[in-house]
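Predict the assembly for these two chains.
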Amino acid sequence: GAVVSQHPSWVICKSGTSVKIECRSLDFQATTMFWYRQFPKQSLMLMATSNEGSKATYEQGVEKDKFLINHASLTLSTLTVTSAHPEDSSFYICSARDFQDSGNTIYFGEGSWLTVV
Amino acid sequence: DQQVKQNSPSLSVQEGRISILNCDYTNSMFDYFLWYKKYPAEGPTFLISISSIKDKNEDGRFTVFLNKSAKHLSLHIVPSQPGDSAVYFCAASSGNTGKLIFGQGTTLQVKP
């Protein structure tokens, strides 16, 4: 079946530094990928929609200059948390939709734990 | 504004019995609904979905029911197994966008 892979699974970074998380669709092409964030005991919150070859669309309240999203190819989207702070520590999850799939199936990555110290 | 709500944060069921997880939504534009299962520190795993043109979809032990007039859907798991213990999220989408709005999740515990 379709697989979405995220890397890294775990990352610890110092406050003020930037960290990049990759999201890859391994056996299908995804014109659109989505980035979610989940804080402990809370729901998954959509942060932004990543469109291949164009600018990402951010949800209300999400700082686009802080969470840089690049979707340079049909199989890769990256989320860069810039100038990370401890409050950015969270579980970040991407998802992707197979644009050749007539259904609405969306595949999720395994998630990436970010801890900012 | 929480467009998708799961009002029960947790549910405990005995193995072999039925688990019923509920989800309510407010946006009448939602036309596709999904249930995901999630283990700690892992991404969600798709379970089952239903289009708004249907009121029931069944896949093995999992059945999703949709009541559009009440803006309510439910996931039935029968018989429940200990391996079903996880957090279950319902999610909704509109207009074939692929963008999902999630509920808060319900933690299901199936006791042996």
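Chain B has no helices and eleven strands. The mean pLDDT of chain B is 94.
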